Amino acid sequence: MSAQSLRHQLLSATEPGRVDFLFDYLRVHGNKHYEEEVAQMQHALQCAALATRDRESATLVAAALFHDIGHMLAGDPVEANNPTLKDDLHEELGANYLKGVFPEAVLQPIQLHVAAKRYLCTLKPAYYEQLSEASQKSFRLQGGPMSEQEIAAFEQHPFHEAAVKLRGWDDQAKDVNVEHLEIDAFRDSVLEALS
């Protein structure tokens, strides 16, 4: 089923139905690894757990949970996706897919989390060294270091600080030793983020 058909189904559901639809999508498609040790589902859950631990808003918890849904959409169903070989523009795919479901406080951090990686790597060269190998590969494909103009534009964006927070959780959420988390633990936050 195409992303457009999936989006139509998502938008036609009730709010609780939208949460069920998105959770089921992650359950079905979240088993891919993309050269990371953790699967996408566990990565998403760890990221949302870190946002929850930091007592962030429901909108940032939802952004953390769904920030990489675009990777799954990019590879479904036409061809296998490998974002370390080709930039799949997953940040745009994910934000566009979730438009009309979540407010900008969810969509914009998702849209900007790749730019936040580029921003942090440009300002703090040591930041690049602590990225996973897969994230280093995708960094080069996603544009590499930012220009001065790109840095200035990023810093002026009203959601740039939220995107930097999301990026930090994204980079930490790759721990194979974390206990298995359940997606339903985030249901209340995602429901709250819808409105």
Give a nutshell description of this structure.
Helix content is 65%, strand content 0%. Helix 1 runs antiparallel to helix 2, helix 4 packs across helix 12 and helix 6 packs antiparallel against helix 7. The model has no long low-confidence stretch (mean pLDDT 88).
How does this model look, in words?
With 195 residues, this protein is mainly α. Helix content is 65%, strand content 0%. It contains 12 helices and no strands. The longest helix has 20 residues, at 104-123. The protein is globular and about 45 Å long.
Sequence-ordered SSE layout with sheet pairings:
Elements: H1 3-12, H2 15-29, H3 40-53, H4 58-66, H5 69-74, H6 90-98, H7 104-123, H8 125-129, H9 133-141, H10 148-156, H11 160-172, H12 187-194
Helix pairs in contact: 1-2, 3-4, 3-11, 4-7, 4-12, 6-7, 7-11
Q: Characteristics of this structure?
A:
0% strand; 195 residues; 65% helix; mainly alpha
